[in-house]
Amino acid sequence: MDFITGLTQYMIENRSELLALTIEHIVMVAYGMALALLVGIPLGIIAARYQKLAPIIISATNILQLIPSLAMLAILTLYMGLGFQTMVIGLFFYSLMPIVRNTYVGIKEVDDSVIEAGRGSGMTPLQLLGKIQFPLSIPFLMAGLRVASVIAVAVACLGPYIGAEALGKEIISGISLQSDVKIYAGAIPATLLALIADFMLGKLETRSKQRMA
Amino acid sequence: MIELKGINKIYDDGFQALKDIDLTFEEGKINVLIGPSGCGKTTTMKLLNRLTDYTDGDILIDDQNMKQINPFELRRQMGYVIQNIGLFPHMSIFDNVATVPKLLKWNKHKIRERVDELLNMVNLDPETYRNRYPAELSGGQQQRIGVIRALAAEPSTILMDEPFSALDPISREQLQDELTKLQQEINKTIIFVTHDMDEAIKIADQIILMKDGEIVQKGAPQEILANPANEFVTEFIGEDRLENVLPSIQDMIQSDYPSISLNTTVEQSIQLLSRYQISDIPVVDENGAFNGIVNLFDLLNNKRTDLKTFIHDTLPTITENMDSHRLMQIFHEHKSTVYPIQTKEGNLAGVVERKQLVHLLHQFYMNKSGDSEWSS
């Protein structure tokens, strides 16, 4: 009981600091995701269109995903130094695989008869992509985005090791100070962020496929 | 008009899908391509909107070589209905139907009017259905949308690839009926692929029967049913169906029916007619050319002596190779005890008697209401 009052008291006293860290965390994740979407969607489309490139693109992003996060971030600092940007690039690399793969699968999954109807109506390949294939792959993309964002929220907690301040700052200083309160003060908002991202993107995903059933 | 001239299609592996196809699709008519699977019917159809390509030969569309037309433009000018319907699931019914008009950049007002008109045409209330999504419609309703999507930009040609085969039997019948009814209003050149002979007979103006990449026989449904070109055709049509078909005129003709020549006297004619106990007799000249019919009662009622004045020729000309359905129509419209049949050269080939036709019709409908109707 004492612990909970202690934690509450700490969180209230440091609310502006915690809020700033949370916002920092969100911004970092958002940048990483935005970059991943910007690069990942075209890569997914290219993979779907040029079958020969697909295994190369998919396995390259897969390898990025498989590098342990701490190792990846450490390697990135060698080239980019410490700081916010390094973290954003790290998050971008981590989110790329689910987005590329789901865009690819989403486009591949579009029913052949729908494609045939589109071609038969006289759509150019670009119109087919823009009007039919891409819109129909959005539910898959949403699922990818959801997975990616949950991973990104987690990876972003390693920020302080590479000089990117976010909720990880509380957790890591909590470890060195052996302060339960500080660890929880960082862990709780970080977990909540992951939960909220998962929930909201889940909602979006269902909505995007609602009427297509 | 669409003409295929010496079309061959050979795949990379050497398989020849189409062998020297020469074919003209009848304009404003329903042309049905039919045959067992792998016969090349779908391939032939897909050549027309360049979804597949051919190896050599020429396809002329209104005398223009098809290869000179931009394929995207070409497809926008041809409606296309596919077997699996292929509505765009993420688009409303309105957007689905408006697909091609939008590609052609029609103005919004015109598109809206056209979509409403088309929905009304297939008895789907625009207010109710315009904003629905394909998944909210039944299979039959979905394919109605599929059909009007193809009609939207008023193409002169519509390609239909087994459009009704995925539907339940009741919707299928309904859509076939609607299509034939619709066709009377719109008069498009329809190229319809099916493997279902019942469907072909029901809707086709011209049937093109294919096998192994070649055309085996083409013609109006009744022509094919009456004169199957070979055993394959007979087999494909099915014995059941052949039983239900009217025999050809050649099979009905009575070539030993009496006739008289022009220089027969009235007296002799009356004697002849009463001997055979018939009331009408065809008259031929010395070369055997048909001149008309004389009627016993006309001869008896008048005292004139020249037979020529009694000859009447009110019946439309019926020739040996005419469709027997046309004969039935003449039979229905013109009363006569005999229907003289002429050869191509205008000679008398024989007659078909009215009582014979009545007997035939009776048999025909006995057959129709018998087992064969339900067994298929």
From TrEMBL, chain B:
It comes from the Bacteria. Gene3D superfamilies: CBS-domain, P-loop containing nucleotide triphosphate hydrolases. The lineage of its organism: Bacteria, Bacillati, Bacillota, Bacilli, Bacillales. This is Quaternary amine transport ATP-binding protein. Belongs to the ABC transporter superfamily. It is a peripheral membrane protein. PROSITE patterns: ABC_TRANSPORTER_1, ABC_TRANSPORTER_2, CBS. PANTHER family: OSMOPROTECTANT IMPORT ATP-BINDING PROTEIN OSMV (PTHR43117:SF4). It is found in: Cell inner membrane. The keyword Mitochondrion does not apply. One of its GO terms (molecular function) is ATP binding. Its EC number is 7.6.2.9. SUPFAM superfamilies: CBS-domain pair, P-loop containing nucleoside triphosphate hydrolases. It comes from Lentibacillus salicampi. It is an enzyme of class 7 (translocase). The complex is probably composed of two ATP-binding proteins, two transmembrane proteins and a solute-binding protein. The complex is composed of two ATP-binding proteins (OpuCA), two transmembrane proteins (OpuCB and OpuCD) and a solute-binding protein (OpuCC). It catalyses: a quaternary ammonium(out) + ATP + H2O = a quaternary ammonium(in) + ADP + phosphate + H(+). Keywords: ATP-binding, CBS domain, Cell inner membrane, Cell membrane, Membrane, Nucleotide-binding, Repeat, Transport.
